[in-house]
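ok so for the tutorial part 2 we go from a plain amino acid sequence to predicted C-alpha cells. step 1 is just haveing the sequence, like this:
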Amino acid sequence: MTGGRVITTGFRNDAASIVRAAGVLEILAEANPERTFMDFRRIEDARLCRGNDVAALFSLLLKEKIDLVIVDASLVPLNLQQELEIVSASERGNPFKVLVSSDDLILDEKPDDVPIAVSDPASRGQLLYYRPDLLLVDIDGEFDDLVSMMDRGEIGGFVADASEVEALGRQDRVTEVFTPSICMPSAGQGGLALVARRNDRKTRQIADSANHSPSFQEISLERIFLAEMTRDGRGPVCVLCNVDGEAFQISAVVAAPDGSEKISGMMHGFAGKEREVSAKLARYLLDSGADRLVGKC
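step 2 — the prediction. this is what the C-alpha cells look like for a chain of 297 residues:
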C-alpha cells in the first residue's frame, strides 16, 4: 500500500478520536495536496478492529493494511513493536483530567456515597489519596454514554480526559479541571501520536508535516521517564513534561491504586540531558518507596 497516492490512516472508533484524527488529517492534506488520505474503516480489514482496540490498529499497520495510525500518545505501548515508531505528534491538547458532575459540585464537595466513574487505576489511586472517602467505580465508556448514565442517576459524575472533552466541544459539562497535585495525567495524555512503519520512508515524511516539535519532545521525554520506572509502561506511574525552548521540567507521581500512598517529585533540565534527568528523577522516586508501588502492579 505504501508508495502510492493514497495513505490509509487508522484511529480509534470513538467520537472524540474521530474528531481529533480529522484535525490531523486536515493538516496532512493541506501540507500534502498530492496525496489522498483514506479512512481505514473503508477497507475490509477494518472489521478486525473492534471498537477502540489499539493493538488491532498496530496489527493492521504491521501487515501493511494501513499506512499510519493516529492515536492518543498515552495509548501507545512503551514496548512498541520494533518495526513501528512514533514518527511525529500533532500539537498537544489539554493533558489534564476533568470531573463532569451531575450536581456541579467539585471533588471537594461531592458526597461520599455518590458513585464517580473512573476508568484507569492510576487516576483512581491519586483521587483516593486526595479523598479516601470517595466512592469510585470502574466504568469505561464514551462521553455521551457516561453523561446518560449520570442523567439517569446511575452515577454522580465521571472523570474524563480534557482533550477528548474539548474535541467534542462539551466543555460546558466540565465541573472541575484537576491540577497535577490532585491528579497527574498519564504519560502522553492529550497528545496525538502518529505511528508508522520504520521502513516506510514516504509515509514518515508525510507524517512529519503534522509534527509539533514541543509536543513531540514532551511525549518523548515522558516515555523516556516511564521506561526508567517500569519495564512495560504499566503500573500507577503518571508524568507530565513541559518543554520551553532548551529547558524542560518533569513532574511525576506514583500512587497506590487504593490511595494508601503517593510519592511525587519534579526535576528540571536542558536539551541533551533528557535521559540523565529522567534517570535521576526515577531513582529518587524508586528510592523513596515507589519501587514497592510499581512492583505491586
